[in-house]
């Protein structure tokens, strides 16, 4: 895997595309081929417990190792995939890779949860849950180690479907998270209708938390709501020790962000996970470099 390792240092190409652009059209035409050729690679970002920074799980974040354009961030191509029927096969591919990675870590004595992002369209795929069950059993991965993230806006887009499918997913034993919480224009009280384990507070509420008392007020009420609804909270996008400290003081138990670690290639994150067995390795904040 030397060629792959060299690619780790590549600058991520991360910019949203105008849907009429030539690049958009060209990438759309290459989707099927990219899937067949395994050009989609999962990077993993640590989820940690506060205040120690112990890794409790990871989130799988897809990148496209494009043969000509280098490493593409999901912002460049996820919309294209979501607007195509390839989304179902794509998500199954991501799920399978994440389950296989979870199994590889289990084999090394590392027991952590692995989260996968779903597109709202995936909830309408009747083959998704059977596929999930098949992959869990095929790779002997406990369902409780797999977490499924759905954005708040995606969930609200089709609340009826979410209310039907979430309990089915919970029955399989996987964990559920509402991603980017707070950005979906839905009432806070909507979460009571959703049978989920985790709420992920969107990064936009964290950015100014050390300077803007209004963001502190919003976070406080989200935390209170989640405690009362018996849901765990993860704060997204922590970039500084000051942000981590405030969140801990406010009672937030879990966090994710560049301060604790960027999304990393499996070859980069695995040594961090296996360093102290059992998993209690302190994450040293990763400043620059691999992403
Ligand atoms: P998300 O699920 O909310 O993932 C978090 C995004 O925030 C990731 O961007 C991550 O790299 C970035 N991030 C994490 N910590 C920090 C931080 O401290 N500061 C800043 N500025 N950013 C941080 P990424 O990897 O570019 O992914 C963007 C979005 O693409 C994801 O947002 C998710 O909605 C979507 N996505 C990624 N992988 C998949 C996938 O396999 N399937 C689907 N359907 N969507 C995916
Ligand atoms: Mg996510
Ligand atoms: Mg998010
Ligand atoms: Mg997002």
TrEMBL record:
Domain EAL: 24-277
Domain of life of the source: Bacteria
Protein name: Signaling protein ykoW
Shown chain mapped onto the complete sequence: 363 to 653 of 653
């Amino acid at each position: 895997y030397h060629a792959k390792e060299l690619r780790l240092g590549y600058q991520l190409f991360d910019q949203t595309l105008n849907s009429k652009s030539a690049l958009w059209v060209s990438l759309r035409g290459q989707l099927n081929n990219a899937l067949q050729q395994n050009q989609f690679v999962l990077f993993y970002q640590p989820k940690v417990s506060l205040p120690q920074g112990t890794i409790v799980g990871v989130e799988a974040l897809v990148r496209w190792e494009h043969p000509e354009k280098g490493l593409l961030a999901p912002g460049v191509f996820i919309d294209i995939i979501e607007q195509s029927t390839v989304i179902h096969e794509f998500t199954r591919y991501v799920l399978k890779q994440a389950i296989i990675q979870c199994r590889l870590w289990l084999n090394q004595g590392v027991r952590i949860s692995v989260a996968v992002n779903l597109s709202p369209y995936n909830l309408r795929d009747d083959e998704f849950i059977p596929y999930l069950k098949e992959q869990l059993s095929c790779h002997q991965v406990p369902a409780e180690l797999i977490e499924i993230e759905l954005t708040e806006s995606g969930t609200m887009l089709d609340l009826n479907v979410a209310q039907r499918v979430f309990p089915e997913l919970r029955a399989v034993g996987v964990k559920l998270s509402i991603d980017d919480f707070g950005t979906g224009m839905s009432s806070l009280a909507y979460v009571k209708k959703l049978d989920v384990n985790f709420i992920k507070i969107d990064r936009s509420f964290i950015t100014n938390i050390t300077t803007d008392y209004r963001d502190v007020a919003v976070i406080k009420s989200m935390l209170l709501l989640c405690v009362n609804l018996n849901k765990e909270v993860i704060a997204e996008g922590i970039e500084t020790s000051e942000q981590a400290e405030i969140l801990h003081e406010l009672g937030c138990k879990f966090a994710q962000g560049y301060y604790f670690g960027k999304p990393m290639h499996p070859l980069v994150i695995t040594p961090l996970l296996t360093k102290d067995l059992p998993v209690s390795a302190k994450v040293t904040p990763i400043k620059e470099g691999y992403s």
